[in-house]
Design a protein that fits this description.
By secondary structure, the chain is mainly β. The chain has 1 helix and 24 strands. The N and C termini lie far apart (57 Å).
Length: 367
């Protein structure tokens, strides 16, 4: 090779190497440490009364909130109304309240199967645990009674739906409970509920569940005066002869209870939290573990790991793009479409709430 050309080539190679070394350095130097991940936007306040411990479900692009506990004048503190939030339009409409036979309740379980919503169990003003189940049909704005929940009356149960079935489990009825049941709205009257065996985790009341890719994830709540740290997956497609309705599998705990270092910074344990799903990941926020929470945590089912704001990388719940700080709370509800997640209502230590927020998880917020 010509010496001049070779020398020129060597200089070009050296120059490119220096560029490759400098670019990462510059990137690290210009990283904005005052930026946090996720922006919460305030959406239309619930038109109905402020409340906590309500039931909720999502059908198509509409979220529904019903029942709950209110503050204010009068002897009846529990509710039987239902409100529809139109996600595309950001507005609320009032629907027909639950029938008089259903009464008023709080701490009920809500879920949707197909194009209908369901409310079951709860607690009424006569200090009674409830087991009745009611179906709401948005197309006719009407209610119909279904089979009573066969697990027995209780409150604070958790609920989710997968495919053509709803699932309700755990809760409290003078004892913390650990049982689960499957609901088939299309089955004949008298056979709509069936027991689901196989759960081996802690009992709990006011737990949280979310569904990703037709698998349910179960965590949080309280049990015997403590906050459970176990975390479970339920897969209805994973069946055996002994477990024909699906299998429960224990996942990594959500607290630092082992010698492993995967969860050293976890601060997820809590009760009365909410969860929703965006793009195949679970988001859990609010609740209480002795103090009310504003943080949020993201669960990746591919790695069985959570990321969250223990290191201040994530914008706390309700810190809006405008800088407004919403109230920490427990007993809220959530709507989830799979691509959007909303948190609504709940209670501070002294006030029931009617405000609502939507998380934009990929947006950065400058501090």
């Amino acid at each position: 090779m010509n010496v001049a050309i070779w020398n020129s080539t060597k200089k070009m190679i050296l120059f490119l190497c220096l560029i490759c070394m400098v670019i990462p350095f510059l990137s690290s130097c210009t990283d904005d440490s005052d930026t946090t991940v996720g922006v919460w936007y305030r959406r239309a306040d619930l038109t109905g009364l402020p409340r906590t411990q309500a039931a909720a479900f999502t059908i198509d692009n509409i979220g529904y909130i019903c029942t709950g506990y209110k503050t204010g004048s009068g002897t009846e503190k529990r509710l039987n109304d239902i409100w529809a939030y139109h996600i595309d339009g950001n507005y609320w409409t009032e629907c027909n309240s639950m029938p008089s036979e259903a009464g008023y309740r709080n701490r009920a379980a809500g879920f949707a199967v197909g194009e209908k919503g369901y409310v079951t169990t709860g607690y009424n003003s006569s200090s009674e645990y409830l087991a009745d189940t009611w179906e709401y049909d948005p197309s006719s704005d009407s209610w119909a009674q279904k089979d009573d929940f066969v697990g027995g009356a209780r409150y604070g149960a958790l609920a989710f739906s997968i495919g053509n079935y709803g699932y309700v489990g755990q809760g409290y009825n003078d004892n913390w409970l650990s049982d689960y049941y499957r609901f088939n709205p299309n089955a004949a009257s008298g056979s709509q509920w069936e027991k689901v065996n196989g759960y081996g985790g802690q009992k709990r009341v006011d737990g949280t569940a979310f569904v990703i890719n037709d698998k349910a994830y179960i965590c949080c709540g309280t049990s015997n005066g403590t906050y459970p740290s176990d975390f479970w997956r339920f897969d209805p497609s994973e069946t055996t002869a002994a477990l024909p309705m699906g299998t429960f599998t224990a996942l990594r705990d959500i607290a630092d209870t082992s010698d492993d270092d995967y969860d050293d910074d976890y601060a997820i344990v809590r009760a009365a939290a909410v969860a929703f799903v965006i793009d195949g990941k679970g988001y859990l926020t609010t609740g209480t573990n002795g103090s009310l929470k504003t943080d949020y945590w993201i669960y990746n089912p591919d790695t069985d790991l959570w990321t969250g704001d223990s290191d201040d990388d994530y914008t706390p719940f309700a810190l809006l793009n405008s800088g407004y700080q919403g109230s920490s709370r427990s007993g809220a509800v959530s709507f989830s479409t799979g691509t959007k997640g909303f948190v609504l209502a709940g209670s501070t230590s002294s006030t029931n709430l009617d405000d609502m927020y939507e998380l934009s998880p990929y947006e950065d917020r400058d501090e």
